[in-house]
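Cont'd.
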Amino acid sequence: MADVISAQDNGNTRSDHPLSEQETVALIELMFFAYRDFVSDPDGILGQFGFGRAHHRVLHFVGRDPGMTVQQLLDILQITKQSLGRVLKELIDKGYVFQKEGETDRRQRLLYLTEAGEELRQRLMGPQMNRIRRAVALPEGNAAHLYRKVLYHMVSPANREAVRDWIDRASLLGEQKDGG
Amino acid sequence: MADVISAQDNGNTRSDHPLSEQETVALIELMFFAYRDFVSDPDGILGQFGFGRAHHRVLHFVGRDPGMTVQQLLDILQITKQSLGRVLKELIDKGYVFQKEGETDRRQRLLYLTEAGEELRQRLMGPQMNRIRRAVALPEGNAAHLYRKVLYHMVSPANREAVRDWIDRASLLGEQKDGG
DNA sequence: AAATTACGTCAGCCATGTTGACATATTTAA
DNA sequence: TTAAATATGTCAACATGGCTGACGTAATTT
């Protein structure tokens, strides 16, 4: 299916009705809250293994593209090889990742997950998949409103009241400041 | 207006057509790429001031709710007071934030932005507002597709080709693995 | 008068990012 | 075929921003 993002866009999209300031700020804040909670489940699991978010990223992307080179991984993560080196070494030492010499280019150390690595990757991905599916399972609406609802539903249920309260109050404060 | 998230939902939303695995994983990855780029503009500006992301969060939320207490800020950021203490002290020392003794409760140190603080806050928020507005200015579609497009457009234009390539290739790999 | 609360601070630890320098094996180009 | 570039690894040092634990002070509540 390869249902990608759909080609015809180069960052120059227009609209006659840009979002209001308050709407936009609310989305900025939802981005913060949503991302915070989005990574919280994996963080909890990783802690039990003595790993961190950086390990998660490596596990995830290597699992998605087995046999990728170190350089490809660096390009995707956009970190330095020294940063990667630390976590990669730990993942290899603990038996979650292994390397194979490249066949056409023997300088390369192609990256693969072990069975334990793939298991852990799936376990980390589970809660995030649930979260996304729950968030996206929503009735239609206009783009901004929908996006806002989606992000809101990325926030953990336990945190939603606090987030909603904040967004409500902050929106009111913002309207007062700018005079509506 | 206070157009909040809309009340009637407690995290138990259902759908007959949950997202496919590949769709869902693509969204997980877009969340990563989008957030990474979303914070990159502020990060650049902050660097010029000797500040980091933590300072940005404080500036943002204090600016949104002037006179908030330290405890309220801690509740929103969900970090420890020791972590906050460091950045807050720097912001105060450099003249971007100031504190006022609470009137009803003189133990409280209410938080406010100075003029310089508000200026910096606006400057940091600008690129993020642009990014959100650009991302949300899109034609309609179904919820998942729309959300995906929105997140995609949160990625910096310079990174979109790489992100698109990754998502395309990884989706194909995933379909092959699971057999379509 | 005692307990709690709001806040500040000191000290140290951890994870994960950075730069810079250097080494080794392999491939590519002159 | 030698020289240059590439892919990777590693050492060392540093910064940011989380964390825990302990302790102190002023103000409020019980």
